[in-house]
Amino acid sequence: MKLCRFGEGRLGLVEGTVVRDVTAALEVLPAYRYPLPGFDPMIANLDKVVARARAIAAEAPAQPVSSVSLLSPVANPGKIACAPLNYQKHVDEVRSDAQIHHNQAATMAPIQTAGLFLKATSALVGPGQGIALRKLDRRNDHEVELAVVIGKTANNVRASEGYEYVAGYAIGLDITIRGPEERSLRKSSDSYAVVGPWLVTADEVPDPANLNLRIAVNGEERQNSNTKYLILGVPELIAFASSFYTLYPGDIIITGTPEGVSPIQPGDVISAYIERIGTMDVTVRAA
Known about the structure:
The structure is a single chain. The protein is of the alpha+beta class. It has two domains: about 1-70, no CATH class; about 80-285, Fumarylacetoacetate hydrolase, domain 2 (Alpha-Beta Complex), CATH 3.90.850. About 15% of the residues lie in helices and about 35% in strands. It has seven helices and 20 strands. The strands form three sheets. Strands 1, 2, 3, 4, 5, 6, 7, 8, 11, 12, 14 and 17 form a twelve-stranded mixed beta sheet that branches. Strands 9-20-19-15-16 form a five-stranded mixed beta sheet, with no helix packed on it. It has a three-stranded antiparallel beta sheet with strand order 13-10-18, with no helix packed on it.
């Protein structure tokens, strides 16, 4: 199933080029009072929401997907964990380009050494909201990545069990300001974490380790690779992350980008694609 959020927080069931408004399915969610939970309630109750959405879909109002403004399919992730340098060709690319490594090539270690970093949840947007670039005197780059949405609490999970904790997948854009600061700062500006266009439930992606992914800017292809080249795959990343901190429903793991990262500027249109998920188009503007 493909579930999207659109407009003013409505829930949609995507069927081909049509989205059905199944917001009423959210009525199955428990009611919460302050203090609110530290996880995403819809993702924590995804099975119930999916079942209700299926039950009401036939009678739900429908409209073209192209007519709605898509939000992030996850509204309230507790954290966005990101994998740096998780494709070998990107490791080589970063080390060979001073505009990317900013004179820190010696410290550009692959993921097993570098570990993960966190992006602020305030950076999260959907494709319909677009990217608002900051620090226009510096290089801002696109990075297309497979995004993994955690479906249940995970703590010290073994890699062999990693897929059991996945609710679904989406496309992630990890937008990056180049410079000397820590990654988490340069990658956490508002709108620098684009996730969408919808959540594809895990049952519809039987082999996340073999998905083509690519990105084009203004029609020019910039990145084109496959998740089979990930250094640490989805289950290994879940094991790695959960060995340091507990993962909760709605947490997002952005798995790393392949080679081909390059600058974007206001006025650009980014088109990102991942096999079995789809395509999302994102406009770029100045903040």
